[in-house]
User: Which sequence fits this backbone?
């Protein structure tokens, strides 16, 4: 069975640069992936992540700047807090850990951007097969 939609929240800086590079370099990722560009993952609220699941997302991937490259200095720490809060909430609601992930992409890394998405989807599919 194919994967349903996956929402990928990307920070406006490094991760979005990776998305642009993926497009420029013709890197492939599934058409069921919906990137959402936000200023910083540290500004994301757990309620927005839950809304993505409520609207039918099979998974939510948070892609931001590597910790030592954060445009706002605080963003990666705040993103980790948002991730931890969101993980607690999705577990309470019965979702699997594999359905939410926080990861990082360096600027301009289109291939890495695509690989992270494909790996995330494979993780969701693998955990669905075990369920």
Assistant:
């Amino acid at each position: 069975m194919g994967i349903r939609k996956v929402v990928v929240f990307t920070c406006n800086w490094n991760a979005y640069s990776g998305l642009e590079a993926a497009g420029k370099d013709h890197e492939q990722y599934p058409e069921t992936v919906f990137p959402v560009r936000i200023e910083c993952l540290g500004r994301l609220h757990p309620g927005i992540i839950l809304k993505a699941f409520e609207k039918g997302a099979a998974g939510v991937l948070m892609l931001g700047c590597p910790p030592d490259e954060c445009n706002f200095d605080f963003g990666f720490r705040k993103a980790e807090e948002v991730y931890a809060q969101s993980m607690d909430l999705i577990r309470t609601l019965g979702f699997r850990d594999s359905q939410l992930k926080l990861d990082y992409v360096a600027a301009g890394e289109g291939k890495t951007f695509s690989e992270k998405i494909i790996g995330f989807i494979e993780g969701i599919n693998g955990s669905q097969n075990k369920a």
Observations:
- The longest helix spans residues 110-130.
- The chain has one domain: 6-130.
